[in-house]
Amino acid sequence: MPTFAAITEEIRLATAALGEFGAGLINPTVRLGVTGLSGAGKTVFITALVHQLLHGGRLPVFEALTSGRIARARLEPQPDDAVPRFDYEAHLHALTTERRWPESTSRTSELRLVIDYQSARRARNRTLTLDIVDYPGEWLLDLPLLTTRYAQWSADTLRLSRTGPRAMLAAPWHRYLAALDAAAPEDEQSAREAARLFTDYLRACRDDRFAMRLLPPGRFLMPGDLSGSPALTFAPLEVSGDQAPAGSLWAMMERRYEAYKDAVVRPFYREHFARLDRQIVLVDALAAFNAGPDAVKDLEAALAAILASFRTGRATLVSTLFRPRIDRILFAATKADHLHHANHDRLERFLARMTERAVGEAKFSGAEVDVIALAAVRATREATVARGRESLPAIIGTPFEGQTVGRDVFDGGTEVASFPGDLPEDPAALLARDGFKGLTAQANDTDFRFLRFRPPLAEPGTSGAPTLPHIRLDRALQFLIGDRLA
Ligand code: GDP
Asked: Which terminus of the chain is more solvent-facing, meaning fewer CB atoms within 10 Å of its CB: N or C?
């Protein structure tokens, strides 16, 4: 039986969708969602994609461009006045002029790109409007909260925090919880301290060494503009039973948990997520490989949670009243330029394996799904380096100034060759505890794992303007919008 709130939600969504559908008949628009967990590469991806389209980059697989049917692409003011604009110019300046990576995504932003093209079928001039919506993947981890009550969420979150490396990281928070009585009268200081320690625990899990990703509620680590508000000042408690005693700390936490759902999760879903037509989910699998099997398993669980949100959107909110909105989903393993090209297909297979079940379900509900390994900006090139009698496949890039490996301190201008090692043939080995030792087989037995390369120098593009090298960005574009430019 749908609740009253769910029904009003559906009506609101249907009305919004109807309005947009009408507008879409006159001026075809694709709303492309770009998401992924923190550091996955959203900002770099959008900046590179827009730059390639504006300047006619080298995109052989992107048919509309190679066949010369795209006349012009330009930026236009976005449709939503209340959403920040994606700061394309600043990000591009960072990448190309300063040769540093841009500031990462910390909230939703939007950018409108208008593409004039000639239809292949009707030899007629047409326009496609592409609205790119950038949002933190962490926020999708919140959607399961909508159907979970506070007591259940507390129990689930505590159980997870006692497993694997999380248990150690949660120790200070657990100690504080052990001394807290959920049935005691409500108290702001206790709520704040519990929320602070809980957030510290989430932050520690996210650290590169552990690279955990299943860390809801999403706004605790990605508060957007809600930092410090009461809707974020709650945390799980050890509770027994189902009903919070009136006036208790438990009741206070429960109230805020519900406020979080009302003030944060539902509006995000309604105003951003439910309006998307296409979606790319970026995944930094390499960070998980570097941290080890616990991180890989955690990433898999986080991806499953993200995908559950796509299913929720389709089955219960949109499809019952209106045509399903998201009809294509692309999963992309980013930063493939850290691997030799012989490993790109392996990386793709690994991601396919991680998302297998979810992909099966999405197909069932009608969305087309694909998996890809890409580098939106390729910071390395490949070479073969002789070592004794062997010749080893290497990648060459410029590490940032000040980084050290052994006694070497990099100056930010010198290139170095690194040997990233091979991913296993069978993706299952990456999930096995001792099956894969991480990408650590490096020259001189030094650990290059955390070496960050500077963005590359731009290359001359087809239109004369400089373009950035990439890996398989054209394939991603073809899947995401190729059919809409046919
Ligand atoms: P976001 O948090 O999803 O917006 O992630 P960003 O786009 O800011 O990317 C995070 C970091 O990953 C960047 O600062 C880069 O160091 C790295 N990165 C992202 N994309 C690429 C890529 O295509 N190649 C390389 N080499 N590094 C990348």
From this structure: N
Confidence of residue 464 (pLDDT cuts 50, 70, 90): low
Ligand 1 centroid distance, CA of 185 (Å) = 46
Question: What residues does ligand 1 touch, defined as CB less than 6 Å away?
Answer: 36, 38-44, 101, 104-105, 334-335, 337, 375-377, 379, 452-453
Q: List b or e across 216-229, with b for residues whose CB sees 16 or more CB atoms inside 10 angstroms.
A: bbbbbbbbbebeee
Alpha-carbon distance of 30 to 112, in angstroms, equals 10
Does the model's pTM come out above 0.85?
yes
Task: Report the nearest-CA residue for atom 9 of ligand 1.
Answer: 41
Share of residues in the chain with pLDDT > 90 (%): 48
Residue-wise pLDDT for 21-54, tens only, equals: 555 555 699 999 999 999 999 999 999 999 999 9
For ligand 1, what atom is nearest to the CA of residue 282? 3
**477: pLDDT strictly greater than 80:** yes
Mean pLDDT of the chain: 84
Round the CA-based radius of gyration of the chain to a whole number and report it: 24
**pLDDT score of 466 more than 80:** no
Q: Whose CA is nearest to atom 10 of ligand 1?
A: 39
Q: What is the mean pLDDT of residues 111-125?
A: 90
Ligand 1 atom nearest to 38, measured from its CA: 2
Q: Write down the residue that tokens 């009268």 correspond to.
A: 185
Please, what's the b/e burial string for 104-121 (b: 16 or more CB within 10 A of its CB; e: otherwise)?
Answer: ebebbbbbbbbbebbeee
What residue ranges do the domains of the chain occupy?
4-135+272-377+469-485, 144-264
What are the pLDDT digits (tens) for 345-394?
Answer: 999 999 998 888 767 766 656 778 899 999 999 999 998 888 888 888 88
Residue 44 Cα to ligand 1 middle (Å): 6
Mean pLDDT of 435-446: 42
Query: Which residues 6+ apart lie within 8 Å of 316 measured at CB?
Result: 2, 6
Architecture of domain 4-135+272-377+469-485: 3-Layer(aba) Sandwich (3.40)
